[in-house]
Amino acid sequence: AKYLMKVTDFLYKYQKSLNDRINEISIALTSGNASDMASYKMMVGEIQGLSYALEQVRTLLEKTDNDIDSA
What we know:
This protein is mainly α. Helix content is 89%, strand content 0%. It has helices at residues 2-30, 37-70. The longest helix is centred in the last third of the chain and has 34 residues, at 37-70. The protein is elongated, with a radius of gyration of 16 Å. The termini are close together.
């Protein structure tokens, strides 16, 4: 159980880090910081990748929480 708690702590911190980066890029985009279309596409692509990773982390956390609840 101790190991499982450390893993979930890591996942929650990683989730926060992903969210923070998505917010940073979103603010940059809405502030007009994309200098050209290539830069805009790169920023949007990064958000898409981070969002995918975030969804995977959420799924793992839900599974872990369910495993803890049923233990």
